[in-house]
Amino acid sequence: MHNNDIVEAEKIKEMVDLEKSVPSKHVSHLATRKLVTALILEVIMSVLVYYKFDSMGETQPLVAPALLGASTAALGQSFSQYQRGKFNLQKIFKFIVWGIINGVFTVLWVEILIVNFNSLAYRVIVDQLVGTPAFQLVFSLINAFWNTGEVSISTRQSFFKALKYSYFYWPFFSISSFLFIPKTMIFPANCLANLVWNIILSKLV
Known about the structure:
This protein is an all-alpha fold. It is 89% helix and 0% strand. The protein contains 8 helices and no strands. Helix 2 packs across helix 3, helix 3 packs parallel to helix 8 (183-204) and helix 5 crosses helix 7 (170-180). The longest helix is centred in the first third of the chain and has 50 residues, at 2-51.
């Protein structure tokens, strides 16, 4: 009788495990479908804004950067989620907000650097000593308030961690953008660079 109870318990456990595995696969498949849909929409949005960037910029100079910043930031986050197989709409919204803010202030920041500094060296130095930490701080604050509603020790830790990684990435783009890329194309190029950086940020936070 005791052995029969053990066998019966093992069968019940196997059935429970099987039931648990089915929803998990279903959820994973559903998440993948949602992420593929999000990726397609974000790619279409990014391409459309890119091709309309100049014409939009003539009438609404800050709308085009905001839209392109939002779409590429969302694209980076969705791609990161696709790699993990987990769909999180809140994180996508968070990166959209970050992309809008980043897009608007990046185009203004680039203009400030070009107007006030003729020297390539000064532009890059100011960009990396002021711009990079400032933009990273804004992202860290958005991330902290979005996730917990407050700034904590972990916020400071994540800020310095991301800032450390940023100095392995952004100085090279800053030099190449001011040296080789025409002024009108610096911001769109920056959005492409931000696409890669947002994927990195997604893994860091």
